[in-house]
């Protein structure tokens, strides 16, 4: 990437000076030079054709060699990334694969955040690769995102400390509620019993929110930690559905299932996914009370789905709802942080499966996940 300072391969006969042939080319250059991001235009083989002034400025500041042509014109940028053994060699293969895939038309675009630290400065860049028309090459841009990353780090640290601090009093409050429930077990029929149960449910909700925030906060760049064990998937589904039935007595949750199956995975996390899909189905279908759960074994995989007949998701939001903190505008009346589906997706991916949805606005939604059988 930009940190790699030596050109690897000048292609013979490569044009090394830009001849501004037309007004439109001059206009393009003026636009490129007005941008603060460092930009290079590559041809179909990944060879740099032109760069903007920000690119040259960056090269000036960071090049270790006085002889290097700072425009890098004629350098094969793919080879620069592929051959890197510098301090950013960890990100280089991802950059190589991304640029290669865009040039080949395999993906529509590519982005990568990568560190570019020096002893004096801690910097982060965002690399974006977008194709030129007709597979004629690509535009690579590098934007300095150090400020945003520093704010993100501060925010993450704050969230992590605050969440850990909140967990302790909640755990002790839950303990107290359980002691009270046990002490009043026989006399629990009246108002006090109801209040204690409500308190217990609300404390569970609070710890779920804190748990979700903590998971998301520790996630960036790291793989979700799974604690795997062998368990019966059918029992997990039945138990989880029953738990949701207890807290959503106005909805009818019916299960369609086939054979009993053993699965090796993180039972707690998968329960979290199923609970999230079920509580969403209930939450986002206030006008309808039917929820269908399908849990079947098919062609070497577990196929699980939850169908509701509620508000549905508009086409333009179907991708976005899986993003961190995204909530459709129509959901603002209902509580939530917009983290459940993001975390669910990560959990299912962590098990080698996939999660997806189908929906029609105003008619309802079906959320699916599949998990390859592994026992
Ligand atoms: P939350 O429910 O806390 O907002 P989620 O990540 O679980 O977070 O869901 C993200 C968004 O996806 C919701 O805010 C809602 O707009 C939409 N959504 C999720 N499930 C459903 C559903 N079953 N029906 C309609 N919209 C849904």
Any overview of this molecule?
The protein is 40% helix and 21% strand. It has 375 residues and is an alpha+beta fold. The protein has a five-stranded antiparallel beta sheet with strand order 2-1-5-4-3, sandwiched between helices. It has a five-stranded mixed beta sheet with strand order 7-9-10-12-11. β1 (38-43) and β2 (48-51) form a beta hairpin. It is elongated, with a radius of gyration of 27 Å. The structure holds adenosine-5'-diphosphate (ADP). Adenosine-5'-diphosphate is lined by residues 276, 280-281, 284, 308, 310-313, 321, 327-328, 331, 336-342, 365.
Describe the protein's topology:
Layout: H1 23-34, E1 38-43, E2 48-51, H2 53-62, H3 77-82, H4 92-103, E3 110-115, E4 124-131, E5 137-144, H5 146-183, H6 191-218, E6 229-232, H7 233-247, E7 252-257, E8 262-265, H8 267-283, E9 290-298, E10 301-308, H9 340-350, E11 354-360, E12 364-372
Parallel strand pairs: 7-9
Antiparallel strand pairs: 1-2, 1-5, 3-4, 4-5, 6-8, 9-10, 10-12, 11-12
Helix pairs in contact: 5-6, 7-8, 8-9
The structure holds adenosine-5'-diphosphate (ADP).
Residues 276, 280-281, 284, 308, 310-313, 321, 327-328, 331, 336-342, 365 line the site of adenosine-5'-diphosphate.
């Amino acid at each position: 990437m930009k940190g790699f300072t030596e050109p690897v391969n000048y292609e013979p006969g490569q044009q090394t000076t830009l001849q501004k042939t037309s007004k439109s080319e001059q206009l393009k250059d003026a636009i490129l030079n007005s941008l603060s991001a460092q930009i290079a235009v590559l041809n179909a083989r990944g060879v740099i054709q032109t760069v903007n002034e920000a690119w040259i400025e960056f090269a000036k500041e960071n090049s270790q060699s006085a002889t290097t042509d700072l425009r890098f014109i004629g350098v094969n940028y793919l080879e620069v990334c592929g051959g890197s053994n510098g301090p950013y060699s960890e990100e280089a293969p991802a950059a190589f694969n991304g640029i290669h895939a865009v040039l080949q038309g395999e993906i529509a675009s590519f982005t990568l955040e990568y560190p570019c630290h020096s002893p004096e400065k801690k910097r982060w860049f965002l690399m974006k690769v977008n194709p030129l028309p007709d597979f004629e090459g690509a535009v690579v841009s590098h934007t300095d995102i150090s400020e945003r990353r520093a704010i993100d780090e501060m925010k993450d640290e704050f969230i992590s400390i605050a969440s850990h601090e909140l967990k302790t009093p909640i755990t002790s409050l839950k303990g107290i509620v359980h002691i009270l429930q046990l002490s009043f077990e026989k006399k629990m029929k009246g108002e006090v019993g109801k209040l204690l149960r409500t308190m217990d449910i609300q404390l569970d909700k609070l710890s779920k929110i804190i748990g979700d925030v903590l998971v998301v906060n520790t996630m960036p760049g790291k793989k979700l930690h799974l604690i795997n064990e062998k368990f019966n998937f059918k029992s997990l589904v039945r138990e989880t559905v029953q738990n949701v039935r207890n807290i959503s007595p106005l909805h009818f949750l019916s299960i369609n299932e086939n054979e009993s199956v053993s699965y090796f995975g993180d039972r707690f996390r998968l329960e979290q996914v199923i609970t999230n899909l079920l509580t969403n189905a209930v939450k986002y279908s206030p006008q309808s009370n039917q929820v269908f759960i399908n849990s079947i074994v098919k062609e070497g995989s577990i196929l699980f789905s939850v169908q509701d007949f509620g508000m549905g998701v508009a086409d333009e939001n179907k991708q976005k709802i899986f993003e961190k903190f995204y909530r459709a505008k129509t959901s603002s009346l209902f509580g939530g942080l917009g983290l459940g589906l993001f975390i669910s997706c990560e959990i299912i991916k962590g098990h080698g499966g996939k999660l997806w949805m189908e929906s029609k606005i105003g008619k309802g939604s079906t959320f699916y996940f599949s998990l390859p059988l592994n026992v």
